Amino acid sequence: MASKVLLDDMEPWLDLQGKVVMVTGASSGLGRDFCVDLAKAGCRVVAAARRVDRLKSLCDEINSLSLSTPSSSSGSVRAMAVELDVCADGPTIEKSVQRAWEAFGRIDALVNNAGIRGNVRSPLDLSEEEWNNVIKTNLTGTWLVSKYVCIQMRDKGHGGSVINISSIAGLSRGQLPGAAAYASSKAGVNTLTKVMAVELGVHKIRVNAISPGLFKSEITQGLMKKDWLSNVAEKTVPLRTYGTSDPALTSLVRYLIHDSSVYVSGNMLVLLCLASLFSHPSNKGYARDVFKWCRESRNVSQFGITKNGESAHHGWNYRWIVGYGHDAENFSVRHYSSHVNNKGARELTNKVLRNIPESVKVVEVGPRDGLQNEKKTVPTSVKVELIKMLVSSGLQVVEATSFVSPKWVPQLSDAKDVMEAIQDVEGASFPVLTPNLKGFEAAVAAGAKAVAIFSAASESFSKKNLNCSIEDSLVRYRDVALAAKKLSIPVRGYISCVVGCPLEGKVSPSQVAYVAKELYDMGCSEISLGDTIGVGTPGTVIPMLKAVIDVVPIDMLAVHFHDTYGQALSNTLVSLQIGITTVDSSISGLGGCPYAKGATGNVATEDVVYMLNGLGVKTHVDLEKLIMAGEFISSHLGHPSGSKAATALRKVTSCASKL
User: Fold this and answer.
1) Which entry of 35, 497, 593, 655 is annotated as an active-site residue?
2) Minimal CB count within 10 Å: which of 7, 50, 276, 596?
C-alpha cells in the first residue's frame, strides 16, 4: 500500500479519475491505443472516428474492462462512440463535437489523432486533389475539431488540454522525401499548436503537440515483422529499435491531460530517439544520401549507412510503395535489395539495362480483352466508369470494346452504348475490335476513331477462333484496312498464338513473321504480338521477336503476354531489352481467350506499371489510381484482383502508419 502511495506521488498522471477525454481517429492504430490506455487510467472516453462499426467494438472492449478505480462499477459506461469525419465541413464537425460533449457532459482533454499519410510523391507529381485531401484531413480537420471543443471549454469556464498528434515530418530535422503534403500539413499543425497555446492560455486551455518517429502500433505491426524495417531501426536509431505506443506515447498523453502539466503549453514534444539528427554518429551516411532526387525529381535514394568506408544501402526507399527505383549515377536498384556502390556493380547494371527504353506506351485492353472472358456480364455503366477511371490514371490508349457478333461474345453486346457514353471522354484513344467489314462499319457508325483486327499465327487456331484459314482472314482484313485508310482511321493488327497454340503446340517464328509482314503491308499502324495461352518464356520469345523485327520496323510492334505460367513480366522485360516500346496489359489481370482453354488472364497493368516504375521508365500512369480502378472492377466481378503488385501494396498501405 505504501509503495502505491509513493508511486502515485511520483507519477500522478497514472490516475486520471474523473477526466473526460475525446480522441479522434479512434477506430484503429494509435487512436485505439490511446482510448484503451486512458480508460484504464480512469478516464471516460469519447471515441470519435468515421468507422462507427470499429468504434462500437472499441467501446464494448473498454466497457467490459475490469477496472480497479473507485468509480468504475461493473455496470458503468466508460466509453461512448461518436461519428466524426474530420474532412467534413464546419457545421457538420460542430454537430459531432456537440454530441461528443453531451456524451458525458464535458470534455477535459482533446487528443487530435486523426490523420492520413497520403501517397508518396515528389512535389512535381503530387496532384491538387491529393494535396487538398491531406491538408484538409491533417490540418483543417485538426483546427475545426479543436475550435469547437475549445469554444465549449471557454464558454463553460473550466479550461482543458488539447494534444495534437503530429509527426517528425513536420519538423525541420525530419522532413521526408516524397511527403510534401504530409510534411506541410504536420508543420502547419505544429504552428497551429503554438498559436493556439498563446491565444487560448487566457482561457486556461493548454495546447501541445507530440511528434512521434518510427512507432509500432496496430496499423504498423505487419510492417514491423519485415527484416528490412528492422534493419532501418537498427541502423538509424541509436537505441537500435522502434518505439511502441505504450508506454512512450500513452504516458506522455496521460501527463499532458493530468493537472500536473498545468504549466506546460505550446510545446513540440519529439519522440524519435535522435534518429533524425544528422550529426549523430549512427547517421553519417543519412544526411548525405537521403535527399538525392533522381530522374524528373520522382525517385529518391535509399538510406545510405556508412560502414567501413563503404556506402551500404539497406533497401528502404520512400518510393518503394509505388515501385519507383533509384538510378543516381546510372545505378539502378530494386527495392528490398542490398548493394555495394562500386564500379563493378554499376558496369553490370548498365550492361543489363542499357537498352531499356526511356518511356513505354501501355495499351490497356481490360475493357475488351479482359471482360470478354468473364462469365458475369458487366453493366454498361460499370464498363464506362471503368474506362473513365483508367483514363484518369494516365493511360493514353484504352481498348474500349468489340464489334463482334453478340452470339459469339455476349459480354460485349453493348458496344454501341459504351462508345456513345465515352464520346466526350478526353485524354485517350479508344480503339475497338472489328472482325470484318460489317463490324468496322458498325464501329465507325458508333463513333470509333481507331480499330483493331485480329489474326493468328496458327492455322488450327485461326479456323477455331475466326472460322477461316489464315489466308482467308488476311483477305478479309485487307478490306477493313482499305476502308479504314479512306477514313484516315488507324488500324491495329493482333496476332494470336505467337509462341504456342492450344491445338498445334509450338508455333514457328517464321510463321509469325509472315503474318506480321502481311498486316504491315496492308497498312496496320501497329502490330501486337500475343502469347495467347501464356506458354512463352524469354527463350521462345526472343527468337520470335527477332524473326518479326527482320520484316517489320520495331517501333511498330507491341507485345501482349498472358500470365498462365507466370512468365509475362519476364517476357515483357526481355522485350524491352530488345527495343519494344509498347506493351499491352489488362487491369487486374483480367482476361483470357474464349477459344483457348486454360488460358488465364493477361499480365496485370498494375504489375507492368510497377515494374516499369522500378526500372525508371516513364509511363505517365498513376499507379495508385490504377489500383483503385482495379479494385472497382474486381468488386463488381466478385473476385479478387489478379495483380500481385496491387494486392501486395494494398496490404502494405492498409497497415502503414504515419512516420
Assistant:
1) 593
2) 7
